[in-house]
Amino acid sequence: MKVNEKSKFGMRELIAIIYIVIGSKFTDMTPTMLFQTGENASWMIPIISILIMTIPLWFLYQLLKNYRDKNLVEIARRVVGSKLGFFIGVVLFVTALVSTIIDTRSYTEIIGTLYYPSSPIIALYFIYLVGAYLVAIKGISGISRVSWSIFPYVLFSVLLLIFFTFKEFVFFRTLPILGPGPEPILKESIIKVSIFAELIFFGMLYPFIKNEQSYKKGTIFGAGLSVICISCFIFLYSALFDFPTVQRVSFPFHEMARYASVGDYITNTETFYLTFWLLASIVKYSIYLYITILIFSATFKIKNQKKLFPLFSLFIFFVGLLPKNTPIIMHYREMLLHTASLLIPIIPVLLWIIAKWRGEFKR
């Protein structure tokens, strides 16, 4: 895949993209899902999951380093042939598309339920997707610039939220620290490893990254920052809401924002945090949309990608309206996580084994 040098981005932009896509998951329904099994020890699940994910990520890195200018789908086609490569591309594409549909709708549900309950979901969802489309259509160079430009402000708002809610935390509520015990935590960490599946999908962006070191360091620092934020916030949710109440809080980040206050006079500051969360979420799903179309284009060998953006945006919009309520969306999302945990991490491992057997690394 030939990429114009002007379209390439570096380590700092990759860190911003990874944090916005993965690190922001403490603001959605992910913590609520983890609390159902992990209880007070739910904060350990992301840490164990990322440790497990380092195995397929190592294999992915070796593949990308060897083939240099190829993305994941192109590598699959080179290693296993056009037919199996096409099948792998379809698996990646369907997973990315379904994830985009479910997650964009879940974020719209958050906006509608907590902030604009009188507004129709169809209108909120449409406006939300238009925002994501307008960023995605700028291409990866535009997305990377926007990601880096908002990254410091998003991170600062998160740290500010912790500071202004710190007095509300009761850390005895996080006990027992091991929750239901090591076995359920380990099992949940394995079946929820796809929380970090986007790190595999970012293999599609490798040709757009300036050099190998930018990819390597950006992935390490971005993933590290993401897992720290997710685990810390899950721990803080336990300290704030207590168990088992926290299991029934669908949107803990936004409920936590309602506890934030500046002294006795400035309260109801959740609108401040909503602004940065909304900006980050629009950029997040512009990245989802772009990568979904990138996988589709690579799989079906389509050169003109720009025509696909409005078509995919409309498709996501109409399909995303089908789920009726939050519990159904959570159920679909959990099913997706379990399925993706089985399929996505194994792809780079299998490709590496076949490439090694064929002697591709000696060339």
TrEMBL record:
* Principal subcellular localisation of the protein: membrane
Q: Which UniProt keywords apply?
A: Germination, Membrane, Transmembrane, Transmembrane helix, Transport
Q: Which cell locations does it reside in? A: Membrane
Q: Which spans are transmembrane here?
A: 43-64, 84-102, 114-136, 148-170, 190-208, 220-240, 274-296, 308-323, 335-355
Specify the protein's topology with respect to the membrane.
Answer: Multi-pass membrane protein
Read off the InterPro entries from this record: Spore_GerAB
Its family remark reads: Belongs to the amino acid-polyamine-organocation (APC) superfamily. Spore germination protein (SGP) (TC 2.A.3.9) family.
Which named protein is this?
A: Endospore germination permease
